[in-house]
Amino acid sequence: FEVLRHLLILHLLWAALVFCQYEDYDFEDEYGGEPDHQVPYYFNPDAQVEARFPFPVECAKECFCPPAFPLSMYCDHRKLKIIPNIPSHVQQLYLQNNNIEAVPAGPFTNVTFIREINLSYNNIKFHMIDHGVFAKLSHLVQLHLQHNELEEFPFPLPSSLERLLLSFNNISRLPANAMEGLPNMTTLDLCNNLLDDSVFKEKPFSNMKNLMQLNLCNNKLQTMPPDLPPSLRHLSLENNSISHIPENYFHRLPHIIALRMSHNNLQDIPHNTFNLPNLLELNLGHNKLKQVFYIPRSLQHLYIEDNEIENINVTVMCPALDPLNIKQLTYIRVDQNKLTSPISTYAFFCFPLIRTIYYGEQNVTVSRPSQLRTPVFRRFLTPEEFQEAEDNHETLNQETEEDHEAEDSYFHPYYH
Predict the structure, then answer these.
(1) Which of 117, 157, 251, 373 is deepest in the core (most CB within 10 A)?
(2) Glycoprotein: present as a keyword of the record (predicted)?
(3) CA–CA gap between residue 376 and residue 316 (Å, rounded)
(4) What three-state secondary structure class fits 200?
């Protein structure tokens, strides 16, 4: 028994030594750079292709392969001009923030299992990408190419691809054949490019049956994109020049959860345009709207700031009361309009879950903006909700005790 006790103590000391070695290891010291600001993409470990190899793992001399993450190779922020050779076992390759201008086939010759490639913040042009270099990567799930110099959509691509990020390039064309054979694509980000209405003539998105998020913000669109797949959940069209939404446009997109169309030229919206069963967020700020519209039961957040609305007609937003299907609206932002009085108290019967109405300043006169006595209406916030509102700048620092008294007298009778 005494011998076993000594062996156990030795084993514990050895385990503590190994643990301390890893505890003292500073990833940042060897990585030598600030963490990239982009949101990381997390893979399900069970979904990764199993790879067995001896340690230490093979790694390009220009890069860093952390022992704790043997399937990843970090080559970012290294002033690289060319892509180093990639070991066959690598599944995540990080090459962002370099000076890379070309994507040749050579470095990818032995690549078998790669699932994510990040080539953002480089100087890559379309004609400098070897034809088919990405298409051969049959396990590739996510490809980052934002903040480059691409003039065209980087096709062909592998059918396995799910997320493609192409914002901040110079893409002006979307050939229909460029997006064929992408049945698994769920997210496509094309914001901040040079796309205009002509790109829709060939219906580039119509066959993307699983597309859930499409970002087309900061382009040159003047009309709503036609023939979008019914699978869409999130549609981003901010900062374009769209002036009209055709009636019944969203009948083909019943699953939309979030629609963002701020900073366009919208003036009149058909009454039932947004009668969608799953819509949670609607952002129409910074347009030229003069009237409100029907609010679906599911909507929670409505942004209509910086428009030309003089009166918010609650009966248009809520034609009838249905106690069995109450509307879910909790937040409205209406600052920078032309309101001279708060929203009618009838709104609190139609939208009993409203917690915040942000009035802010109103553009009643050309000379200077004015402020309602109640810049922010807020009802029964928990401490956590109040802190969230503060963090989101939903309150004005200039509020006075008089303002709060006005809120109390105006709204509280309905919520005792």
Answers:
(1) 117
(2) yes
(3) 23
(4) helix
> How many other CB atoms are found less than 10 A from the CB of residue 230?
12
- Let me know: does 164 contact 146? Beta carbons within 8 Å: no
Whether the predicted pLDDT of 53 surpasses 70: no
Residue 409 has pLDDT above 70, yes or no: no
Q: Which CATH architecture has domain 256-391?
A: Alpha-Beta Horseshoe (3.80)
pLDDT at 228 over 70: yes
Q: How far apart are the C-alpha atoms of 329 and 70, rounded to whole Å?
A: 47
pLDDT recorded at residue 379: 67
Residue pair 314/343 in contact (Cβ under 8 Å)? The answer is: yes
Pairing of strands 331-333, 234-236: unpaired
Question: What is the reported pLDDT for 106?
Answer: 96
Answer whether 0.70 is exceeded by the pTM.
yes
Question: Where are any strands of DSSP class E within 129-261?
Answer: 142-144, 163-165, 187-189, 213-215, 234-236, 258-260
Q: Coil, helix or strand for 5? A: helix
Please give the full DSSP string across 73-103, using - where no structure is assigned: EE--SS--SSPPP--TT--EEE--SS----B
